[in-house]
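Possible regression after last week's pipeline update?

I re-ran a chain I had predicted before the update to compare outputs. Posting the input and the new output here so someone can diff against the archived version. Not blocking, just want to make sure nothing changed silently.
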Amino acid sequence: MNPSARVEITAPLELVWQIMLDTDRYGEWNPFVVRAETTHPAAIGNPIVLHVVWANGRRTRSPERITALDAPSTVDGRTAARLSYSYEGWPARLGLVRGTRHQRLQQVGGGPTVYETVEEFSGPLVRLAGPARVADGFARHAEALKTRAEQLAR
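New output (post-update):
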């Protein structure tokens, strides 16, 4: 029950990372998280409120907190970066639904940037959180990130 998405992007990892952190522009390209309210620059511990649009057009706000922010670094020809945040809404506070979303980037040599995202859900009411609709949103987000990055890379 951990929704995920993966896509290969023909663009430099550093560019994809910049797009991911430029939350002020999410409305220009992101059909899933159409707005993200957070302080700049992003930092571990910062709150972030995601304005989500589900496939059926319904909207919700999701209060989160940044838990990992690993800027791009290269070791042995492999560049990687990670952004993670944890859900802080009432269901999480009551221990009913917890979730942490990880977004990871990897690029080897001059190859494509691989974007992977997964939500690690736990709690007795996870099925009510709609893992399938989250997976759909992640897939739309990943494809839009690919389109945005490849357009900017040209």
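Follow-up from reviewer: compared with the archived run. The CA atoms of residues 97 and 126 lie 5 Å apart. Marking as no regression found.
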